[in-house]
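dumping this here before i forget
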Amino acid sequence: MSDAQASTQEGAVAPAADLLERIRRHRRHTLELLTVCALGLVPWTVLLAMTLPSVYEVRQWRVTWVGFDALLMVAMAATALLGWLRHRAVIVSATATAVLLICDAWFDVSLAFGTSGVWLSAVLAACVELPLAFYLIRRVTGMISLAQWPTAKAATDSSRQPAGRAPELVPPPPEETA
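structure:
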């Protein structure tokens, strides 16, 4: 094994303290951005609730729904393909598919209120779309839990370790007492 390969493998196992600090900073900035966006949506949602008409005639209704279902089909196919290939990007694809299924259920049912189609939409949402979405979410959380993530203590301890010593990303297994 060359020195470059060895250092690459060591780098993959033990991130440097500056890398951990950069990850913390990016995490903080992302959370700040999401917080501001969530707070900004509050007045926008109230404004929409007060000003949008309850009935609205739309154009290209068929294109909208066929396009959405085509997007859902592509997401499901990508999830299946990535799953068969055992690629870790299946986590992102399965999450996107679950979100699209939940959105599809919501729009199918909410847009069918007041029509005879509401019952079929509700049955499809309750028996097909939502169970599949929650199944995918459960599978994704299971896959994520299998990953070995650094604990908060390991990440903190790694910044205090002397240079040249690799931090432990996963705590060692507990010692057996006989």
